[in-house]
Amino acid sequence: MVTDTSLTGFLDVLSSAAPVPGGGGAAAVAGAMAASLGGMVASLTSGKRRYADVQAQIDDCVGRAGRLRGELLALADADAAAFEPLSVAYGLPKGTEGERARKAEVMEAALREACEPPLRMMETLGEVIDLLEELGRIGTRIAVSDVGAGAALASAALRAASLNVLINARSMADREHADALVGRTRRLVDEGCARADALYLEVERGIA
User: Fold this and answer.
1) Distance between CA atoms of 206 and 66, rounded to whole angstroms?
2) How far apart are CA 91 and CA 77, in angstroms?
3) pLDDT tens-digit map of 76-128
4) DSSP the chain
5) N-term to C-term CA, the chain
6) Centroid of chain to Cα 203
7) d(CA 151, CA 35)
8) Could you tell me the residue range of the domain that residue 139 belongs to?
9) Does any domain span residue 124?
């Protein structure tokens, strides 16, 4: 469980032969780091006289950052849990026609389930980008580079999470459902990364 381990412990397992955590868990942790950077910028802004007129917004940002970080870490665990039925499905026997039919049915359900956590990650990452954009406007200028760092992590996390959906959708028998998932995934990635990358470039231009 990502929420119950140290960063070193997570990385040790990530680099091992264990099937989970994998790319999905790494995406979620990167997204949680992006949210945490937003929380840091908000915390550094909070209580400063120069930003008194946006204090209520900053308080809201602090709360949102904590919530989003928690949601993404929980999704890292959900992603790992969703792999188990898929792993079981791959190991089902297929010697008879009945076994093959049963395996196909279980596999399809497991593939759909495995797509849910990364899709929710991408939706949550859109909220992280909302947060970072707001902090780029109202947060303390001394931490604007951290807004940019958060945007870079959010963009990478979006792309990483999308690959889990794409690889599972590729194996689905229901091509209509698979195509819908792929379309939704590409929209989330294209829109989210465009915003995150634009924010990163805005920060870079402002400090270079």
Assistant:
1) 27
2) 22
3) 999 999 988 888 888 888 888 898 899 889 999 999 999 999 999 999 999 99
4) -GGGS-HHHHHHHHTSS-SSS-HHHHHHHHHHHHHHHHHHHHHHHTT-GGGGGGHHHHHHHHHHHHHHHHHHHHHHHHHHHHHHHHHHHHTS--SSHHHHHHHHHHHHHHHHHHHHHHHHHHHHHHHHHHHHHHHHHHS-GGGHHHHHHHHHHHHHHHHHHHHHHHHHHHT-S-HHHHHHHHHHHHHHHHHHHHHHHHHHHHHHHHH-
5) 40
6) 22
7) 9
8) 21-207
9) yes
Q: Which amino acid is at 121?
A: M
pLDDT tens for each residue of 148-170: 999 999 999 999 999 999 999 99
Q: Output the domain CATH number for residue 190.
A: 1.20.120.680
Give this prediction's pTM.
Answer: 0.92
| Residue 187 pLDDT class (50, 70, 90 cuts) | very high
Q: What is the pLDDT of residue 15?
A: 93
How many independent structural domains does the chain possess?
Answer: 1
110 in any annotated domain: yes
Q: What is the pLDDT of residues 35-77, one digit of tens each?
A: 999 999 999 999 999 999 999 999 999 999 999 999 999 999 9
Amino acid letter at 174? D
Is 10 a member of any domain? no
